[in-house]
Design brief:
The chain has helices at 12-25, 37-44, 63-73, 92-98, 111-124, and strands at 3-8, 29-34, 51-55, 79-83, 103-106. With 126 residues, the chain is an alpha/beta fold. The protein has a single domain, classed as Rossmann fold (3-Layer(aba) Sandwich), CATH 3.40.50.2300.
Length: 126
């Protein structure tokens, strides 16, 4: 079954590399990439996305706001946050965890472990 994965990060190179790697390992997934939280949210609100993988720090909408809006729309839609920062000056991780975020991955991450996590979260929704 085709799964629609939404990846959101303002680092274009990271997003493209991740799309290529995930597509090679999970050819049955359709992967959409966005450099803007607002644009990603427009796609998510169409109701066809199965999982969201989002960065925390983005210029137009941080990961917390995107998480909150996704959960307000569909509380069962899995969201995984990724970050390259060990320190979270805006407490995005803390606020998101308090609101129910289950998964955070730290860059650079092992793609195989990310896939395991994504597979697990996708299985929970079926």
């Amino acid at each position: 079954m085709v799964k629609l994965i939404c990846i959101v990060d303002d680092e274009d190179e990271l997003v493209e590399n991740l799309r290529i790697e995930l597509s090679a390992l999970r050819p049955e997934w359709k992967i959409l990439t966005f450099s803007s939280g607002i644009t990603a949210l427009q796609e998510i609100l169409k109701g066809t996305v199965d999982l969201v993988l989002t960065d925390i720090a983005m210029p137009d909408m941080d990961g917390y706001e995107l998480y909150w809006r996704v959960k307000d729309y569909n509380e069962k839609l899995p969201v995984i946050m990724m970050t390259g920062f060990g320190y979270d000056p805006n407490h995005v991780l803390v606020r998101s965890k308090m609101d129910g975020l289950k998964d955070i991955v730290f860059k650079p991450f092992d793609v195989e472990k990310l896939l395991e996590l994504m597979d697990f979260r996708l299985q929970e929704t079926t």
